[in-house]
Design a protein that fits this description.
The chain has about 160 residues and is an alpha/beta fold. The protein is built from seven helices and six strands, in the order ααβαβαβαβαβαβ.
Length: about 160
């Protein structure tokens, strides 16, 4: 995908700070204290996500990995509050990486980020260790809502992802 597609989030940012009903977002936790770890094989997406998270949400990025294997070999991942994990990647994909992180007792909240049009079973994703799943083309619009729900102990799944 083009970098422009991901950097288009600024046009939607005013909508991102609104909840589903058009009201302002009030988080139960100060986002500026949160540490994020990004795992994605798209350089363009990583650049755009870092810009969005650091400049718009004010969170700290503590690590970036290009695939699940690289993420699993970085001990810094275990100190993240949130991990944004692409599902489809070479070497070790996001499903296998999340499963392995969960088996090692990771306490980070992992959100799947995907362009995939594959069918996902919601309960399977939760059982593996995901707290939610967001479509890449909606991530800049829905991430605030997802973070708020997950911080409150809920799960979040984009409506345009085929999930049962």
């Amino acid at each position: 995908m083009r970098l422009f597609h991901y950097l288009d989030f600024r046009l939607h940012f005013s909508e991102c700070n609104m909840d589903k009903y058009g009201g302002k977002k009030y988080y139960t936790m100060d986002l500026k204290k949160l540490k994020f770890y990004l795992v994605d094989d798209s350089n363009e997406f990583l650049i755009a996500m870092k810009l969005y998270l650091e400049q718009e949400l004010g969170v700290k990025i503590i690590g970036v990995a290009k695939d699940g294997s690289e993420a699993l070999n970085d001990p810094e991942i275990f100190s993240a509050d949130f991990i944004l994990m692409d599902i489809i990647m070479k070497n070790i994909d996001g499903i296998r990486a999340t499963n392995q992180l969960s088996q090692h007792g990771i306490e980070s909240k992992i959100i799947a980020i995907t362009n995939s049009r594959e069918y996902y079973n919601k309960q399977d994703l939760i059982k593996i260790g995901f707290k939610g799943c967001i479509s890449k083309n909606l991530v800049f619009k829905e991430l605030n809502i997802a973070l708020d729900d997950i911080i409150k102990g809920k799960h979040y799944f984009s409506s345009n992802i085929v999930i049962s």
